[in-house]
## 1
Amino acid sequence: MDILQLIVSGLANGCVYGLIALGFVLIYKATEAVNFAQGDFMMLGAFITLGFTNADHMGLPFWLSVILAIGIMGILGYLLDMIVLRRMFGQSQVAVVILTIALGFVIRFIAGLIWGHEPQSLESPLSGLELRFGGLVLGMDEVWVIIVTVALTALLYVFFARTKLGIGMQASSQNQLAAYYMGIPVKRIHSMIWALSGVVAAIAGILFASKGSIDPTAGLLGIKAFAAAVIGGFGSLPGALLGGIIVGLVEPFAARYMPAGYSQIFPYLILVVMLVVRPHGILSQIQTKKV
Amino acid sequence: MRIVFKTSYDADIRLFKHKAQAFWYLLLFALAILLPFLISDFLIGEATLVLIWAICGMGLMVLVGQTGQASLGHAAFMAVGAYSNVLYQEHFSMPFLLSFPLAGLTAGVAGALIAMPITKLHGIYLAIATLAISVLAEDLIVIMEPLTGGVSGLFAPDIEIFGFVFNRYGNPVELYWLVLFITFLIVYLYRNMLRSPIGRSFAAVRDSEVSAKAMGINVARTKMVAFAISCFITGLGGALMGHFATIFTNETFNLIMSITLLLIIVVGGLGTIHGAFFGAIVFVMLPLVISLTRDALTVFADSGSVTIPGLESGLFGIILIGFILFEPMGIYGRWLKIRTYFELFPFYRKDMFRRQKSYLKTERTR
């Protein structure tokens, strides 16, 4: 039973990593850039919800503030691409990486300015409830995290594989110029994918905050999500979830069976080993490389 | 505008393009030596810090600016330099003159070893791998507690050369001169490296791996050498940083520091030695400017001191975004543009420094 408990909490954690990784992968899939500020996006989404919901801030009903937060993060993502990232069009990938890192710094600063640096917890109706199966006690929040993550991944997968817009997004990533010639509005598609990843980040943030407390440095969780995205294969949506679950499952078991201090290095160790052995992940999308 | 008529290959790779350039750089160096007579001891301490950051920045510049390989994990190699320097002095009672270069070498070897598997990676994958290394290094320092002192850190003794002691507080001016001398040596080494075959192959790998390969350059080995040299210089900077900070822990060389280092060279200007110095100046002066502004505001508004936590990193992030969007060539690039404007006056054109745009194709299905 103990092990089952570990597995469930690991799964729930892993799903949050997977959701952040999903944000990376979405942007990577459509724009071939990596958003190093995705973790900070998640933190911002969580804080916006917290700011609307919590009694000592605005005290709105939870579900209303969830919708508001998701909407705001979507608009924010769209505007961010339109105002900032569109200027980077046609510049090197590394420049975008540095830009998004700087963006992360700024978001952390702004969040600290508005909501302070103390850890706060979201007053959500999900926390505190429990489900019991025999001896197994599941937190309602953990169950919700798992359900929402799986549903969202499936939805996004279908969106990319089936809908016209999703395929257009993939095309604009594979060859910007060719996609443009085919009549795909590449710039608008980029903005839309940033909006989408803002929405995903908001959902991840809400789920993360309902599981525990958050503070402006929570965005550094994004590094673990990198491990998830790389393990699963950058560019693959189910891969991101798979990687997230692997990282999430490894953590509690390492914490339990390894001496103190060793457990926290495991996600990164897996990441480095993965990069050395199979850089393109489990669900690889790389095909033969020609000059 | 001066036109240099080159008649031989030697003229092309000369350290200074022409006599006037040599004159200005020598004047700058003389000014740097005389600086302690011009400003206060506190500012000399800040100037020393600028030089140390510039050394670390030059280390990263070899990798990012010259070879075009992004690294988000260079604080790890600063840590290797700082820790090994102090450990050599403590455990083998080596003098500073020996432990300092050895610390650099240790960091260089560490860099080469790490580079071997990861130089196969490109662009963002390399960035992520180095990011992981930075995080791992932080935890490894804690795990290797018997050696590194863990979270309580390590105390760096004063630098001692032939019985003469350099201390940050005791004799800041002498310490400044020592660091200035080391900086000069590294700049000289850097310049010479750039005009040697290895420096040229760095540039070739940066500009196009495919054509570098076609020209007969061993790309994997070149990248490894770039990592080794880069980590060597960064390790030296880290060792100096250790002495300057006097006490350092796993927290000193964290991920934020790695990223800061990258931000320094981007703000300064990628691919130039000047860039490392400009970036270091901006980074060190920023807290000073902030505190001065705060003091001025307190006097002006008479409202008690206002402290905003995280203001420095937030402001630095904003500055960086501004530079990437509006001046991707950094401070040095802006200076070049201004200089060219006046040299060519009235013939300067807006698009003279325009960069070629490249449209992205996926890395996944190539």
## 2
Amino acid sequence: MDRKERKDLAVEGLRKSFKTGSETIEVLKDVAFTAKAGEKIAIVGKSGSGKSTLLGLMAGLDRPDSGSIQVGDWRLDQMDEAQKTLYRRKSLGIVFQQFHLMPDLTAVENVLLPMELAGRADSSTIQRAHELLKQVGLSQRMYHFPSQLSGGECQRVAIARALLPEPELILADEPTGNLDDQNAKLISDLIFQMLENSGARGRKSVLLLVTHNEQLAARCDRILRLQSGVLSGS
Amino acid sequence: MNLIRLALRELRIRGNQKMFSFFFVLNLSFGLFAFLTVVSLKLGLERAISEKSRESVGADLAVSARRDLTQEELKVLQDGLPKGSRASRTVQIFSMIRPNGQKRVRLAQIKGMPDDLPFAGSVELRVQGKVRAPFGGRLGQKVWIDQALSRDLGIERGGKILLGGKVFDVDDVIVEDSNQGSSFSAMGAKVMIGLGALEKTGLVGLGSISTRTWLAEVPMGQRSTDELQKLEDQLNQKLEDPAIRVRSHTNSAQESSRLFQYLSDYLGLVSLAALALSAFGVIFQFRRYLSSKIKGLAVLRSLGASSSQVLGIPLIQVLFLGTLSGLLAGWAAQLAAIPLEAILEPLSPYPFRAVWASSQWVLAIAVGTLGAAFFVIPELLRLLEIPVSELFRESRMEKESTPFRPWAYLPMLFGWTALAVMTARSWKVGLLFSLAVLFTGFLVAVLGRWVTRWASLISFFQNSLVLRIAFRRMTRSPGATRLAMITVGVSTMLMNLLPQLRNGIESELADQGGSGGPGGRPALFLFDIQDEQKQGVDHLVEKSGMTTVVSSPFIRSRLLSINGKAFEKEQVKNTAYRTREDEQEQGLRNRGINLSYRQRLTESETLVSGREFTETYKGEGPAEVSIEKRFADRLGLRLGDLLKFDIQGVDIDAKIVNFRRVRWSSFLPNFFVQFQEGVLNETPKTFLNALRGPEEAKNRFLDQLIEKFPNVSAVDVSEALRIFRNLVDQIRMAITWMAGSVLIAGVMTLSAMVRYDAASKTWQMNLFRVLGGTPKQVFSILALETVWVAFVGSLVGASLGFLVSFSFTVLVFEGEPAFSAQSAGVVISISVFLGLALAWIFGRGLSRRHPREILHQEGS
């Protein structure tokens, strides 16, 4: 398929179920959606609606029972673990609710981590990491360890980390869920602003934002609602 | 719900708490069982001594000296014994014997037994069966020989042996002798003979190395340990000569089993090292456990639970697990005692069995519970210092940001040191051992951290992501790394100490230049050469093709005073707890001093301080005297001190002009006290000669020696070395066994650490995987950390092991240290391999975990 003709993100007929004892719970039921590069999509749903499962599948951390997931040139449902590892290195950025920074690496090392894993941490990348940290307002905290940073600062590092590889897909799992209102607004502004910036540089990523926060969801281009494993949306 | 029920229920219901309980108990039990095993062996020996010591000595009381008692002393002895007592004298000498008409000769310990002795005990004879005391009368002009002699010389009942130029009939072969009381038993096979017959041989001459022992039996009803001890004290006081030793049968048995007791003391100390290692494991596991349940405790505190209630739950759990560990260790100790008993029995003068009494269950539970409580107190106190709000942050305990409170570790340190002192029965040894282990731990921690920090700064390590993460973790969270390194370091130090010590001893004993060659150790050691025989023996030596290396006069004396202050005989302390220092002090004071004279030092002596003798004594002022350094240290002597000796009835003043260091293992005649020439030359004396020469010359010489000088005894140095080596091997087996328990305790502790470390890394490694890291990289990080800890810990530990063994060899054995890079290399390699194996076992699971878990986990 010609890259220009296809969608940058395409999920079709996605099904996933888990067994708990003798019972099988269908967590995702025939989920399908597409997105274009630069598009920002919010996924909203209650606890247990299947949001984390969907994120896991999109991150290549899990394998669907059926259906397909296409991210750029990557067909996640057909890849083995080694290919998925490559996919995560090159084409995926993740922002977690709990920040999840490596505690023994400094802020800038955390930002550079995916690039180092991909073997792409050259001097220009290091410079870009510094720039990103400056953009998120951490120019004075680059060599601090996560334990020396506040929650909001940690999340800003996580955002910079997600953006540095200029991935095709950014997954943000309740990125403001662990922050106070002030920090939550700061972080949400930052996410959208940084995406705009990278878009302006010609590297457009799809943002898949999982959130409870309707205001945050409203800032996205589209809102998809996940309810009992069924996706519906505008 | 009361605290106990809550605490115990918690242990039962949650999976990770069950695992904690399991590993906690396993770890502590392994640390405890070796200690309890040694306790049970010691108790077994104590019981054997109390049950068999009277039979072993053959009487209630033994009064021994290397000379005959004077009439006055005999009167003191007779008057001092309770009415109705009886006493009789035996004589023990060393002499060469050989089967009549054959060429083979053997040094033997000859025991002359009067008709009425012994008062207790029995011998098992091959033909006549068991013969009960008194059996001296059955000997008459005949001899009984022991099995070893019968086997070596090929003599049976009806055979004849040549002893002191006379021929005796062998009446029977001794299969078992309840009377074991001789400190020389390893040096010569045993021959029992009627006292009259022995005296007729003329072997019991002036200056012969012989022991006269008056055995006394007191009336029934006056034989309690306390009464005999009192009698011993009284007689020791009345018989002033330090060369006369009065011992109750219990004290005598204690002394004859001293080698075993020293060894079991040492084994006890090694077992305490295992306990220390398991303490690290227990502390580590408890810290992890506490951090996993810290939120629950925070909830309790926020709901109004008092500090004691909050601490009560984990403390109750620990006490419960400590009890379980004590019980399990007690059970394991009973099993472990069986092989160790078999290894140690040949070293004990008494057959014994390990004893497991109810008091040992109490000890096991007490050490288990108190030990566990002491180990975890610092962690619990740390918990108290954290504000409730902070407790809700699970990672708080991990960050170790509470201040270090050294005093919180004091109960543990005091408890452990007290155990070490009690086990070693020596303040000095116990404290030194504790300090050595603490120092090793401290040094490993400091050096390990320093080396790791520097290594982490090397650009090579900085450029590799895996290396950087591994080293950053070790330097930024040093607590776990430090504990693991200390564990590896201390166990490696102990493991490495043993082969190094053995190498040191063996290389010292090894035949450096061949037994007959110049510069090597002597081939024969002759003693009891009378003054008038000296020339004849020298001639025989020359004629046989042997060479005299050193010939030393041998003179008995008593030290009367030091700088005018009387040198008094030390009483045996009648206390349940007598330290090894007490024993040494008493041993030193309660013996006569054998001395010699020579103008120059021999090849086995080195001048430590002072000056050499000026020249031959001119008869003016005090004579010059040289003192062996350690002997001087024990008596607190200084250069220039004035000593007064009683040398065969004549008082002689002497002034210390130098201190010497003596290499005792040279097998050359050496003495604590050495006079200058010209003072004692006319004194009645015997000579000790060390000879070198080839094997055939040696045999030729021995053959003629027994013919011409039947009273002169010869120790075959190779044979003595063989006996000594067997002894060392037996000891080595026992120590290796115990070192194995240290190794197991170390491995257990290290396993716990690696396991918990791997578990604590789960979310980090999942994150690493999510960001694009591979399982191989995850495993590499864990393996690198573990291998580094094992390598640095074992390297420092092995180096310290060498340093300690070096100090022991130089300071204690006063020999040449021998470093075996091979054994150090093996120990380090084993540690590294073990680290890798543990990383593989526990890291495999970690690298295989699915990274999706991170979506359900809480992070840092």
